[in-house]
Amino acid sequence: MFVEPSSTKLLPDPLPEPYIQPPYTLILEMTDVLVHPEYDRKSGWRFRKRPGVEFFLNQLAPLFEIVVFTHEVGFSASPVIDGIDPHQMIMYRLFRDATKYIKGTHVKDLSGINRDLKKVIVIDCNKAATELNERNAIILKKWEGNPADTTLVDLLPLLQTIATSGVDDVRAVLDFYRQEDDIVAAFKRNQARLREAEQARLQKLEQQNKQGRSWGGMFGR
Questions:
Q1: What is the dihedral of CA 122, 159, 48, 96, to 10 degrees?
Q2: What's the pLDDT tens digit per position in 163-182?
Q3: Which among 148, 130, 132 has a CA at the least distance from the CA of 140?
Q4: At what angle do helices 53-60 and 74-84 cross, to 10 degrees?
């Protein structure tokens, strides 16, 4: 039983120049976030791939250093990760031996990942597993194998917006949505409000310009 992480430095130092080090780090649980385990007597344990997982990884790899950090053990999890990531978008893998065992839960302590936590997002389906760094966490509902699920694809715009906006501290953004039951739906509503406000601003500006041209025509030569 692993009680403390096997190392105090779970990831190597960020890549030096001329290598490209993405400014943000995205940490993903494997089980019930990226895949769902299923068992039958004929085949034993099998892992179903979540819809959109390869697209999700491919889209985010240029923006994030992607790390799978799972409570599963390495010898069983590694082949599963190989299967969902044929293009090797995942930069690092951390397993059960990197967790901290607290009250029956394998907790991911991000203080040991050797990264600025202002730039780290962890996605999990177990709130207790992120209790030491809850401000960095996006907690999803467990995926139980529904083939019509769109959660990963729906989550892309939020993560892409954070990365491309150059957010100084991701925790401030996640705090904004923390009280919401569905962070994806909340982000969509917020984006819709922003679009409506921008559209109203542009319409008002256009109206003011029309009025200006009208007065100019009235008093011009």
A1: -10
A2: 999 999 999 999 988 877 78
A3: 130
A4: 80
